[in-house]
Design a protein that fits this description.
This protein has 423 residues and is mainly β. Helices cover 11% and strands 54% of the residues. The chain contains four helices and 24 strands. The strands form three sheets. Strands 1, 2, 3, 4, 5, 6, 7, 8, 9, 10 and 13 form an eleven-stranded antiparallel β-sheet that branches. Strands 14, 15, 16, 17, 18, 19, 20, 21, 22, 23 and 24 form an eleven-stranded antiparallel β-sheet that branches. Strands 11-12 form a two-stranded antiparallel sheet.
Length: 423
Amino acid sequence: MKNHYLICTFLLFFFKVNAQSNFQIGRIITKSGDTLQGFVNEREWDVNPSSIEFSRTGDGKSKQTYKPNDVRFVQVNGVDFYESAFVAVSQSRVAPIEQLSIGADIKAEKAQVFLKLISTGDKLNLYSFTDENKNRFYVKETNSDTIIELLNLRYLHQNDNRKIVSDERYKSQFVVLVNHNKAINTSSLVSLLSKTQYTQKDISKIVAYFNGSSNAIVHSKKQRSSAFYIGSGATMSMAKYNGRNELAEGATQKISILPFVSAGMDLFINPSVRKTIVRFDITLSPSKLKVTKAIGVGKDGHVTHVFDRYCLSFSPMIMFNMFNTQKMKFYVATGLSGTVSFYANNSYTMSYSTGVGPGNNYDLTINTKLEPFGLAVPLRVGAQLNRRFELYTQYNIPVTPVTAYNFYSIRVLSGQLGINYKL
């Protein structure tokens, strides 16, 4: 019951942390041309934001909300840049199949939105806009105020609904732009376009070709979406009996403190923000466990269970950064840990004297079966420094015992103090 309460309390805290603000250093340029320096609340945006929260102070107490109609430009943490623009937004879908139109759907709606600025150059600026429907790319010629969407359509063939048509109109749009840039070699561009997909990486290459790579400025670089790490530290563990067993009450548990090694991978929900992270952790940890109790009239006997345990644990976890800056982060994490255990020196003994004289000693050895598989819930808090070093402490709540007897059980309680290094 205590463990259930602890897990529920941690989860409530966990989701409360995720709802907190994430104000990062930034600035906005208003419609009147004024530049406001302060902090922007950067969220885990899966789509382009429809509004921006701005504050003069990092605590966000004096925050104000700005919509695309209110500002010209937003910069967040020197990483993300958004430009307010009135553009045509195509409404057709590219997935799932059941929502594709029959025949090409070029319907568009005009709207004032925040476009994410990807790169600028002598000839073309590149933007992206993502909403619930799909991701889109836009370009603007530097000698024009018009921003056009690069169209990528996907629809069902009008005469055969079993066929899906990929209509890559953005390629012909780039060819049209060559007419405005006589220095561009059309045949070379067509060759590049033949290998181009509708992705930020590929579209950026084409725009860089127009601008000349030396004249292009990349504002929104594609951030790493994952990172690997290695780690080590100390595992503290002890075995605890419950139920109808001599060692369930009044016993002494020896605390085992031994080193462990770990490795894993982090997946960033938003690589620019890195507030929410999915982690896959593998840990190899040993422990030497002992539970003992003095018995007999004169307490001259004992009941003792000793065993060595070697664990290989795989732990998917989700992490939230409570405090999130480029140089320092404080986080909480939880998940589910599956463990494969190997045992050695497993010995359960009982020994005491039954009277005076020889032959009055009672000695018993029992073969205790220990389970090779187990589950636990890890609760972790930690800090990350300079995106490289991570210090943390973790408590593992056992979900399954290491025994499967009807009248009693043994659970291994464990915790860790560790350090990770991001590769």
